[in-house]
């Protein structure tokens, strides 16, 4: 994996909290920031993926499928809502 340097300027309050959390997690601040950026990018990609998938769907068809889900079959153990 190619590595590069980037001078990151964070607000002091964000930097302080990132330091605290990375220490409590037992990871280097650099690794913590790398993981945070990776998680954000993943979330954005996931949102985009589902938005694209939803664009080609019909809500009525989806609701019809959901209305049939589990019909005639009791909930699995632990899945019932109780009273």
Automatic annotation (TrEMBL):
Q: Name the GO terms of the biological process aspect.
A: regulation of DNA-templated transcription
Q: Which SUPFAM superfamilies match?
A: Ribbon-helix-helix
What is the protein's given name?
Toxin-antitoxin system HicB family antitoxin
């Amino acid at each position: 994996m190619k590595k590069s340097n980037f001078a990151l300027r964070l607000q002091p309050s964000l930097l302080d909290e990132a330091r605290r959390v990375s220490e409590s997690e037992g990871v280097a601040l650099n690794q913590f920031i790398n993981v945070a950026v990776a998680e954000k990018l993943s979330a954005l990609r996931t949102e985009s993926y589902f938005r694209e998938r939803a664009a080609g769907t019909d809500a009525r068809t989806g609701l019809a499928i959901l209305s049939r889900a589990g019909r005639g079959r009791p909930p699995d153990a632990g899945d019932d809502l109780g009273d």
